[in-house]
């Protein structure tokens, strides 16, 4: 196949994935609202098919450009969306066996992909010299994995805040005020249910309990944090190689540092009395806003050494 | 920890300020425009240190306080850790009152049962100690010390990081060198072009290593003008002038000699310009040309280069301002269609010139590629192609025999790099167990029961308690393997 064909295949597969995600998202939301298992089954099948198409799109893009498929913002966005879906399917559905959050994860991916194809699309081409280094494989892969997990953690954190408010309204506040220790839920039974929290059995409420959401969000973010730390370190090593300094307060460096500090604050808040639960969750959301700034605002609107968006 | 948390969030807020206001050394042009257009705002910002947030007293204060608070927290924790590592797991009483508790019967006698239990626990990476004293024979075991050790390691790494940064920057230097093809440059204070930053503890001894630039190549994608590669082909010599190695310096591929690193930073054109007075050569050699910032929507590749030849020894003084078009088709395109094509490589280069006579004002600060014409009068203008000579009047003539390129290299020494790298590695090494491992404690007692014995197992988890439920069940299962009765858990 030639460059044009690979490029065409990548775009077509991207569109297939996007439509599959939209369909999957609607299915998941339907399942969330009405709890029909066949709908979940169909939605998750469509999401997986979309995921496979998406993988094909990313791989074909790499062949079209003759390099790693994360050299500009369009490609990066596409890969980010892909990893959020992968993270959801693996972490939330397989590990936590929580099945009704798919709509939110897919919505994030659909949004990211729509922005990518609408505003950020550029044809495949070689890398500019500053990006042409094996560090692009290490640094960008770490940054993108960290970001996608942070994004997933933030989606779950938002749902936690919603659910926590509803639980507090529905019943007198739990003695401990949400989560108790770093990552373990208290022996806490949902009102009217006789299974402890975290059980995999379907329950009547639309969302998993606040304690489960909180723990899931924490685990995801705690998983992302070292990856992000590594991404920043790898970026510094690369900067040392490319620009002759490991740290220069370039906007991208500054914002990835800010994001890192905020998430470090979140992890500490979880272990600090008086900051647990909702306050910590708010810090996590601030961290997510900072992550979005690090990605979109810095690339598109702030001039700096990382202005590689390649967007005309 | 509350103080540290607040300081951490304060540090993030302070860093945000630095990304909103242009910073010295990163966006000097924008700072200059604030000074020009909003002098009041500029003076307020200067007072507050907002143009140099990361070097300002309040940013330093925040992270110093953070480190002090961190240190105050770390010292007792490290002491406790050392104590913890030294002491063996402590025995416990009343195992059946623990959150995780199980009883199981095994065939072996108490002593054998306990030594089996010890093996099982060791295999699961527990530290095991045998209880002595009154009561039935017992074991105490714990694991997850990596978590206890990881967190201090992670936090101490920041002190090491700071040491590496301060020492490396303090004893090092960074500067830029513009070297024309065919020239040799020696690493010495006077030879830097423009800004040279020497560290606070720099011993004033530059290394004297030499670099000879053979040639420079810039390649672009045609026709888009997207850069593809920039390479400086060079030879490196030690301070005695002995040849060491031949290198290709490109973006992402610096060259190093004696701890001095050379990075590809930029490049430009350097026409060879000869000036003769009555046939006698009075100035000769490559002249480094520069570019102003391009207007919006115009690529630097479409812009001509400014070069200046200054002849202060003549009376009256003479200055010649050149505008170089490395690809003359761009100039003609601009004249014909109003749009210059990008100049990707040399093609019939041409220079326009303006000669001035008067006072060069050499006692003022001089721009390298511009002539200060405030005290000068224009005497002649014209166009000079490669290989041509032009008559400037008063017996002066100027010729343009050759066009070369120069490369701009960032030259740097930082001896703290390995410390910074080490700190970064330790930081990650500490972070992983601090987040992912968990502390567990387990106690086992064995009492005779007929021919076999009864094992009582108690467990306690400091983190991830819900997960321990399963781990504990598996552990008890393994301990009771070979038992006749089923495990009774409570």
Q: Can you lay out the helices and strands and say which pair or pack?
A:
The complex is a heterodimer of chains A (312) and B (490).
Chain A: H1 3-34, H2 37-65, H3 73-95, H4 102-119, H5 135-170, H6 210-243, H7 251-269, H8 278-301
Helix pairs in contact in A: 1-2, 1-4, 2-3, 3-4, 3-5, 5-6, 5-8, 6-7, 7-8
Chain B: H1 2-20, H2 28-37, H3 39-48, H4 57-86, E1 100-106, H5 110-123, E2 127-131, E3 138-143, H6 145-171, E4 173-180, E5 184-186, E6 196-198, E7 210-220, E8 227-237, E9 243-250, E10 255-257, E11 260-277, E12 280-283, E13 305-311, E14 317-325, H7 328-337, E15 350-358, E16 376-385, E17 389-393, E18 396-413, H8 417-436, E19 440-449, E20 452-461, H9 465-479, E21 488-489
Antiparallel strand pairs in B: 1-20, 1-21, 2-3, 3-19, 4-6, 4-18, 5-7, 7-8, 8-9, 10-11, 11-12, 11-18, 13-14, 14-15, 15-16, 17-18, 19-20
Helix pairs in contact in B: 1-4, 2-3, 4-6, 6-8
What does this structure look like?
- The complex is a heterodimer of chains A (312) and B (490).
- Chain A is mainly α.
- Chain A is built from eight helices and no strands.
- Chain A has helices spanning 3-34, 37-65, 73-95, 102-119, 135-170, 210-243, 251-269, 278-301.
- Chain A is flat, with a radius of gyration of 20 Å.
- Chain B is of the alpha+beta class and 490 residues long.
- Chain B has nine helices and 21 strands.
- Chain B has helices at residues 2-20, 28-37, 39-48, 57-86, 110-123, 145-171, 328-337, 417-436, 465-479, and strands at residues 100-106, 127-131, 138-143, 173-180, 184-186, 196-198, 210-220, 227-237, 243-250, 255-257, 260-277, 280-283, 305-311, 317-325, 350-358, 376-385, 389-393, 396-413, 440-449, 452-461, 488-489.
- In chain B, the strands form four sheets. In chain B, strands 4, 6, 10, 11, 12, 17 and 18 form a seven-stranded antiparallel beta sheet that branches. A six-stranded antiparallel beta sheet of chain B has the order 2-3-19-20-1-21, with helices on one face. A four-stranded antiparallel beta sheet of chain B has the order 5-7-8-9, with no helix packed on it.
- In chain B, strand 8 (227-237) and strand 9 (243-250) form a beta hairpin.
- The longest helix of chain B is centred in the first third of the chain and has 30 residues, at 57-86.
- Chains A and B meet through helix 6 and helix 7 of A and helix 1, strand 8, strand 11 and helix 8 of B.
